[in-house]
């Protein structure tokens, strides 16, 4: 049975997630402060720690530092789950050693449970045995569905975002292996989305494959300079070639890790 340790000072949230993870088949350890959480982590060696930041006496940042310095606990994945949404707070948590950082209001209980399951699977399984996850940021439904079906046939897991804001939200907590990004998105265009992806510590290393209906050399060069792996024009590349490009980028990523 997989073990999860929840360190959260809000009693209602603590109890809700304790019950939810128990129903999902986990052995759950739930505490409302950092110090007992550290002691349980050292004794029980859970498969994952779900950690709030703002707590009395010993906050989440202190907990991360202690656990990551201890040889017995430094390998345990830590998912920070906090109301602190400022970029500097997220950056601090990740730099101290948290494996990921999500904002409480960004995830439903079901989404959080799914994320925990993915993180544990990635920590326990050889990476080559896991299905690769693709995020498609595309406002044209027919296009996104078309590529989703193609990718699923190639054994990928796929999620779709039809706006830049949703794409950034999903990317920040979706554990994606690659992002397909339409650079001609409305409201927030692809360049704005790409900039935010590359500035966020949670997504800066996720490969981005950019595309659009039309683009000049300057636009393509700009996307590459901003961090996109490549840029294709929908009218000039076959779906099969797109699939091969995705596989090539992921293979390169694997070899570089």
TrEMBL record:
Coiled-coil ranges per UniProt: none
Highest taxon of the lineage: Bacteria
Every Response regulatory domain range: 3-119, 133-249
Pfam families per record: Response_reg (PF00072)
Entries under InterPro entries matching the protein: Bact_response_regulator (IPR050595), CheY-like_superfamily (IPR011006), Sig_transdc_resp-reg_receiver (IPR001789)
Keyword Nucleotide-binding in record: no
BP GO terms, sorted: phosphorelay signal transduction system
Protein's UniProt keywords contain Phosphoprotein: yes
Key words of the record: Phosphoprotein
Chain positions found as 4-aspartylphosphate: 52
Protein name, per record: Response regulatory domain-containing protein
Biological classification of the source: Bacteria, Candidatus Portnoyibacteriota
């Amino acid at each position: 049975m997989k073990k999860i340790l929840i360190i959260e000072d809000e009693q209602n949230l603590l109890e809700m997630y304790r019950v939810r993870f128990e129903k999902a088949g986990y052995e759950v350890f739930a505490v409302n402060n950092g110090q007992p959480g550290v002691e349980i982590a050292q004794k029980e060696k859970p498969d994952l720690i779900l950690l709030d930041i703002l707590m009395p006496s010993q906050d989440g940042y202190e907990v991360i530092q202690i656990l990551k310095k201890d040889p017995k606990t430094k390998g345990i994945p830590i998912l920070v789950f906090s109301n602190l949404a400022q970029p500097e707070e997220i950056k601090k948590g990740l730099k101290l050693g948290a494996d990921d950082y999500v904002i409480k209001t960004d995830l439903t209980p079901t989404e959080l449970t799914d994320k925990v399951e993915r993180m544990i699977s990635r920590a326990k399984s050889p990476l080559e045995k896991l299905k690769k996850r693709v995020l498609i940021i595309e406002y044209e439904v027919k296009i996104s569905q078309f590529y989703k079906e193609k990718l699923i046939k190639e054994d990928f897991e796929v999620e779709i975002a039809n706006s830049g804001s949703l794409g950034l939200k999903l990317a920040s907590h979706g554990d994606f292996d690659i992002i397909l990004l339409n650079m001609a998105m409305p409201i927030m265009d692809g360049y704005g989305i790409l900039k935010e992806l590359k500035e966020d510590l949670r997504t800066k290393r996720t490969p981005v494959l950019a595309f659009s209906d039309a683009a000049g050399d300057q636009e393509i060069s700009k996307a590459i300079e901003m961090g996109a792996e490549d840029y294709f024009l929908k009218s000039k590349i076959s779906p099969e070639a797109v699939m091969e490009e995705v596989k090539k980028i992921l293979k390169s990523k694997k070899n570089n890790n």
